[in-house]
UniProtKB/TrEMBL annotation:
Keywords: Monooxygenase, Oxidoreductase. Residues 16-86 form the ABM domain. This is Antibiotic biosynthesis monooxygenase. GO terms for molecular function: monooxygenase activity. It comes from Streptomyces goshikiensis.
C-alpha cells in the first residue's frame, strides 16, 4: 500500500484541523484511537483524514467532511464525546480545533506506468 494524501473532492466541503501536544500517558489511547477510526469511517459524510506528528511532538490531524450535518454527527457521537473528555483528562497537554470550509481543491498523482 502506498502513502497517498486524501483525494481532492468537489468543493465546498468542511475540514476540521486538530492540532495537539500529547502527554506521556498512553493508557487506553491506541484502543480508543482505533475505535474512533471505526466510528468516523461509518459516517456517510466522512471523506477521509491525514495525520502527522513532528519529532518534537506536535500532532496535526485534518479530517474532511461533506457537510455540516456529517461533522455534527461526528462531534455529537457519544463514544467520541467520551474520548474527547478522556483526552482532556489524560492524553493532551494542549490542543486547538479549527473548522473551515474548503473552497478550492485539486490534486496530482504521478503516473508510473
Amino acid at each position: 500500500m502506498s502513502i497517498q494524501p486524501v483525494q481532492a473532492f468537489e468543493p465546498p466541503y468542511l475540514m476540521a484541523v486538530f492540532t495537539n501536544v500529547r502527554t506521556p500517558d498512553e493508557t487506553g489511547y491506541p484502543e480508543t484511537n482505533a475505535r474512533m477510526n471505526e466510528i468516523v469511517r461509518a459516517n456517510p459524510g466522512f471523506l477521509g483524514y491525514e495525520s502527522a506528528r513532528t519529532p518534537g511532538g506536535l500532532g496535526i490531524t485534518v479530517a474532511y467532511f461533506r457537510d455540516h450535518a456529517s461533522l455534527a454527527a461526528w462531534r455529537e457521537d457519544m463514544e467520541h464525546q467520551a474520548a474527547m473528555k478522556r483526552g482532556r483528562a489524560d492524553w493532551y497537554e494542549s490542543y486547538t480545533l479549527h473548522v473551515g470550509t474548503v473552497e478550492r481543491s485539486h490534486g496530482f498523482v504521478r503516473d508510473h506506468g
